[in-house]
Amino acid sequence: MGSLLKLVYGPKHSYAPGEIYHVSLMSCFDRKLESSRPDFFLEGDLAREVDAVITPVEIDQIFEQQQKSLFDFDPVPLADLFCQDKVDSSQGVKMLSHSGSGSGGYSEFVLREAAREIFQKNLGTIEWIPGRYRGAY
């Protein structure tokens, strides 16, 4: 998401990557370490893809310190950051999804695209079986 914000959204709206401060809400503390890896640094722009990672536990702690809850804030509509189309507020924002595995469907996407590009085949139903590859590498 940091790459999309800083390298796609930013230039479309005349922002350099260093002018965008991207905070990501992640489920666990391990993501903080992951976001600091060197491969998530935009060398040419001297900026990180994700500037800060915060967890739900930390948000809860901040709310506690400030004696606030989510109910103290007015809801705001979601913005469509990447399309120029206006979102009809009477219809709300349409959330899209895809079939896929527990990894969010990325593996299935890669498999389907490879089959289409390399073999000119469209795959039907794919059955994913949880497990770990135990063969020789």
How do you describe this structure in short?
With 137 residues, this protein is mainly alpha-helical.
Notable characteristics:
Rossmann fold; 2 domains; two-stranded antiparallel ribbon; 4 strands; 31% helix; 7% strand
What is the rounded Rg? 20 Å
Distance between the termini: 32 Å
Fraction in helix: 25-40%
User: What is the total domain count?
Assistant: 2
**What is the correct CATH architecture of the largest domain?**
3-Layer(aba) Sandwich
CATH fold category name of the largest domain = Rossmann fold
Strand content is 5-15%
Instruction: Characterize the biggest β-sheet.
Output: 2 strands, parallel
Question: What structural class should be given to the helix and strand makeup?
Answer: mainly alpha
The geometry reads as extended
Task: Write a structural description.
- The chain is mostly helical and 137 residues long.
- It has 2 domains: 2-72, Rossmann fold; 95-130, no CATH class.
- It contains 4 helices and 4 strands, in the order H-E-H-E-E-E-H-H.
- It is extended, with a radius of gyration of 20 Å.
- 5% of the residues are buried.
- The mean pLDDT is 78.
List the helices and strands and how they pair.
Elements: H1 2-12, E1 23-25, H2 30-35, E2 41-42, E3 47-48, E4 52-54, H3 56-66, H4 106-119
Parallel strand pairs: 1-4
Antiparallel strand pairs: 2-3
